[in-house]
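Practice problem: predict the structure.
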Amino acid sequence: MKILVLGPGKMGEAMSRLLLKAGHELHVLMNRNPEPVQRLVSDGAVMVTDLLQTASEADIVFSMLPNLPEIDSLLFDRGVMNVMREGTLFLNMSTVSPTGIQQLSERLAGKGIHTIDAPVSGGPVKATDGTLAIMAGGDKEIYDTYLPLLQIMGEHIFHTGPVGTGQVAKLCNNLLAAIIMTANAEILSMGVKAGADAKQIREILLQSTSSNRLLADWIPKTILEDTYEPGFALKLMYKDIDLALQLSKSVDTPLFLGGITQQLFRMLIGQNPENANSDYSVIGTFYQDASNIRIADGKPLRNEE
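Answer:
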């Protein structure tokens, strides 16, 4: 199929490469970060020079744009929706507002365009090897039609119901991940400050009731190394927490832990704007600064004499 790709960042680049390898014809729109686009073009994708012409010929418009205003700008303000053919597909795989994507899909349906809303989880590693978890909302018949395409990118694929329900599932996942990451940082800083070894604490917890995937797979490469290179950016996780809080308000459910986590993330970004682009495990630095301890080696961060 001919696929127009919008927003090929770190995740979108890896997912697009899998589609290329599967034999699909990819046309990639340049965005703020040119490097993923250039790498995809070197692998066989086509650089978009005429957005509307390409959109008019595409079987699928595939978006990994980070938020709805950017999606709306391309689809509606720049006229992509107006040239898409009836019966084609808009495939959104980024995390956005459930209500917002429902409203967008209704506008597209008025032009005879189908929508599958399929946010993903698993990070760049699973995006690269095609083992993502995919939470797909949309008409079941349309979902079944495009399931083989989703299977190129994901290993665990769930049809969650109508458009928007995939986003609900994804926001549940990301909010919980943010809370768990914060909890891991909290207990590691306490344990190390009290004299325990961080790596041993981790090994014990992994064999105990508090074992969690972030402690197993993520923290060894971040907090335990005291390095927070871009992975899943703090600003993106903050955005997703905010979306989850909006969702909780709309359905009248309390989110005490979610609200506290959002405030911690907001404070971390406020203290140092550069934290926004760091991996969200950078929340560990907040606890280490407050405790005057480096989790990675158990040494004080500063002399308090």
